[in-house]
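Batch job 17 of 40 flagged for manual review because the log was empty.
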Amino acid sequence: MTICKGVLNSNVLFYKKLKMEVDMRDQILEILTEQRPDVDFNSETSLVTNGILESFDIVSIVAELDDTFDIEISPKELVAENFDSLDAIEAMVERLSEEE
């Protein structure tokens, strides 16, 4: 019985973490879409590199991410690799959330 309970607890934790990640992604997507409703953030992979997001967009997005996730995005994080796609932004937010 103890083994089953341990497996159940580990599955519950896994699904809670998965739900948090989905919620985080949805929140990030909402922030991005509010800033630039004309962009398909689910498929675009070169947001900064192709000039889709400009410096003003990045500043606004950073402020929203900071407030929403209670993180601090420092100037060293302001590189194209961190903002070129929804996946990249999500990875940065996850990493910074773990550091807090």
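Reviewer: the log was empty due to a logging misconfiguration, but the result itself is present. The mean pLDDT is 86. Unflagging and moving on to job 18.
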